[in-house]
Design brief:
Layout: E1 21-24, E2 35-37, E3 40-51, E4 61-68, E5 74-78, E6 84-95, E7 100-109, E8 114-123, E9 135-144, E10 151-156, E11 161-165, H1 167-170, E12 177-184, E13 190-194, E14 217-222, H2 235-243, E15 260-262, E16 268-275, E17 278-290, E18 295-303
Parallel strand pairs: 2-8
Antiparallel strand pairs: 1-3, 3-6, 4-5, 4-7, 7-8, 9-18, 10-11, 10-12, 12-13, 13-15, 14-16, 16-17, 17-18
Length: 306
């Protein structure tokens, strides 16, 4: 008699885990996917909602990370709570033509299940946004009051040449003056750079730097935000240093706003000058201020217009 034996195999029931999720928020101005931008510097806002999985065996959220190519960002943080929370961050990202970054957001739960979102940011020139061009550099030079009326920096944008001169020499090329340096030796004393077009303002009448002719150029001066690197600045970075810069009122007359800046306690000054249809952007680096001898050592970089 054959004895049949039935074997019963017990199967372990799999856990019901759906894992956490990351969802892009719909707030205005939030990056929602891959972006292609003209070369430059941008403040990009990312906002995602991290959510615990809906399975009955899903664990609470444990942590989130933000990483980026070229070490643009590297963040690892514990989850503020186990159920749901926003990841809301704004990054300053600079890119040149052809450069790209991938920003990755990841959320992980206590079961080590995770979800991620990638955003690729590509910088690409277009016919309306030509690629980076020529940067003209003028090395460290000494600026002083010279004839009592300041030192003028002449710049020819057709060939990128520079020349330092006094007011008499500047009179031969008034439309090529980028800015002038002047040391005020009356109380209060200070070093300053001045936009040449403001000198025709009545507020300058009777001063040593009065200018009595009209100007076909217009110059504005600003203080760049921290992080601008003069030595490694790019063609478009020079423009962005001004456009993202801070308007300064140094309490030296209402007509001086964006037209005259004191150099004390500053390292960089950005300027923008229009010459007809041409727009010139530049940076001034303050290397040394000499109060005893009433002079300053400055370096200059200019974004030559196309």
């Amino acid at each position: 008699m054959a004895l049949s034996v039935a074997l019963f195999v017990g199967c372990k029931k799999e856990k019901e885990q759906k894992g956490p999720s990351l969802t892009v928020a719909g707030d205005p101005g939030v990056v929602t996917g891959d972006r292609t931008l003209p070369p430059g510097t941008y403040d990009l806002r990312f906002k995602l909602i991290a959510q615990k999985g809906s399975g009955k065996d899903d664990a609470d959220l444990k942590e989130y990370t933000i990483t980026g190519t070229n070490n643009i960002v590297n963040v690892r943080r514990p989850a503020p709570n186990g159920q749901s929370f926003p990841i809301d961050t704004t990054m300053e990202i600079t890119g040149s033509n052809g450069q790209s970054y991938t920003i990755t957001f990841t959320v992980t739960d206590k079961n080590n299940n995770s979800d991620r979102k990638d955003f690729k940011i590509t910088f690409q020139s277009s016919p309306d946004n030509p690629p980076s061009g020529q940067i003209d550099s003028y090395p460290e030079r000494e600026y002083s009051n010279r004839d009592g009326k300041g030192t003028y920096l002449i710049y020819d944008h057709t060939n990128g040449s520079f020349n330092l001169t006094d007011r008499t020499g500047a009179g031969s090329n008034p439309d090529q003056i980028l800015f002038l340096y002047y040391y005020r030796d009356q109380n209060p004393t200070y070093h300053s750079v001045i936009a040449p077009d403001v000198l025709s303002n009545d507020g300058y009448n009777g001063t040593p730097i009065e200018w009595d002719r009209s100007w076909s150029t217009a110059t504005s001066l600003r203080v760049p935000r921290s992080g601008v690197n003069f030595d490694n600045v790019t063609y478009d970075g020079i423009r962005d240093a001004f456009e993202n810069g801070q308007r300064v009122d140094d309490n030296i007359g209402p007509f001086n706003v964006e037209k005259r800046i004191k150099l004390e306690n500053r390292t960089l000054i950005a300027f923008k000058q229009t010459r007809g249809e041409k727009v010139i952007y530049g940076l001034i680096k303050i290397e040394r201020l000499d109060n005893d001898n009433k002079r300053a050592n400055l370096l200059v970089k200019v974004r030559r217009p196309n």
